[in-house]
Specification:
mainly alpha; 8 helices; 72% helix; 0% strand; Yip1_dom
């Protein structure tokens, strides 16, 4: 089994030791990018029945951009606003660990099965969120899981505001009538 596949399985199993390993392995950035791409492509393939093939490319690009933004927000909130005394992290550590927290998202390919897509997306979303909390806790050297949850929630809200603003400015809300 390849190192990437093994790491993805361990990430999906919520193995905190894996997230420590990824945090320390600067050479794992390429793997983290692949995890985000694979998870995004799986989501795009799984949603072809509802949003069509165009969602595959747009969804993959949006997921990569979203990963960079959420990792940066998480880095800033976790190290500048809500650090613990032992918190010591850099942006790359968050990119790598959060990237691997996308591993459970590959199950979204099962959305191709009629009437199963929404169930798979809910399960994958919750699973990925739990993995992200573990990734953030490990990358930021937190002792408190609650603090990691708070950082993830704050990051999610800020990202949602940014995405909403972008859709408003460049989507239908920003076009003249």
């Amino acid at each position: 089994m390849s190192l990437l596949t093994d790491r993805m399985i361990r990430a999906a199993k919520l193995d905190s030791n894996l997230y420590e390993e990824i945090e320390a392995d600067k050479s794992a950035m390429g793997q983290a990018i692949w995890v985000v791409v694979l998870s995004s492509v799986a989501a795009g393939v799984g949603s072809i029945g509802t949003i069509g093939v165009s969602g595959l490319l747009i969804g993959t690009i949006a997921a990569l951009i979203g990963w960079f933004i959420w990792a940066f927000i998480t880095y800033f909130v976790g190290t500048k606003i809500l650090p613990e005394p032992q918190t010591n992290a850099d942006y790359g550590e968050l990119l790598r660990t959060i990237g691997f927290s996308s591993s459970p998202g590959v199950i979204r390919i099962l959305g191709l099965i009629p009437f199963l897509g929404w169930i798979v997306n809910i399960i994958a979303g919750i699973w990925m969120l739990v993995a992200m909390v573990i990734a953030v806790r490990q990358a930021l050297d937190y002792k408190s899981t609650g603090r990691a949850v708070a950082v993830c929630l704050i990051g999610w809200v800020i990202q949602l505001i940014i995405i909403s603003a972008v859709f408003f400015l460049f989507g239908e809300g920003g076009q003249p009538s």
